[in-house]
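TEACHING EXERCISE
Course module: macromolecular assemblies
Task: Read the component lines below, then compare them to the predicted structure of the full complex.
Student: A.B.
Group: 4
Components provided:
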Amino acid sequence: MKRFRWSSLYPRSWRHQYGEEFEAMLEMSGVTPRMAIDILWCAFRTRLHEGAVTLATVGIWFLIAWLNLNAHEVQWTAGALLAGAFILTLQNPGRWLKVALQLFTAVPISSLYLYQVPGIHHKPLYETSVALIPSFVGSVAGLILSWAWPSDWRAVS
Amino acid sequence: MKQKQPNPSVLGRFGEPAVLVLLSLSDRPLHGYAMMQSIESDLGFKLGPGTLYGAIAKLVKLGFIRPVRTGERAKPYEITGEGWAALAEFIRLWAPAIQFGQQRLA
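Instructor-supplied answer key:
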């Protein structure tokens, strides 16, 4: 029978970094009921934290898409891109490029929707690439701030 | 890109497990199980595996400890220069309070 891996309770990114050594430690120490409760609670907290970040990314992505389709002024979409990229990069500076590209995709993808609506004048899709500017500006600003400012308040969260 | 060094005083803000991990590594690099044992036998605290690895992950993220490459499954960790500074700062900050408490309880 396959042995239960306690590290499987943790998110994938965590498992990738610490999974093997965590299992090695548990093989040496054994797992008492008290230790099991500790693992369950800590894995839950780690997943909660990671889930909150994912949820925030998805929420901001849909907000940008909605603004792109509904806002009368393009500045609203640009502002949401800039602020979203800034906040998410500040939360995890190592993902700045991924954040900028992820949020940018909300604009061309939501613009594709307009192509299906008859009678609407829409601009060529390649023009949406201009949205790369606020998303990269936001991400780079977040990166610079995270570099210039003590990172402790983010790391301890 | 060069990482900004975290403020050493941050250690006091996320509690004892991280301090216990740093203290356990102050003698030599240790892997998770050895850390757990050292914290229990030398410092008198029992840390659960989840709590221990929560502290390790935070300390790695802050750059206060780093893994030592050995190729074994049980990866040892060692304190970095920033980790030593953080530990020294934590002890400097808390020493007067502990001394004051000891005097009051005497």
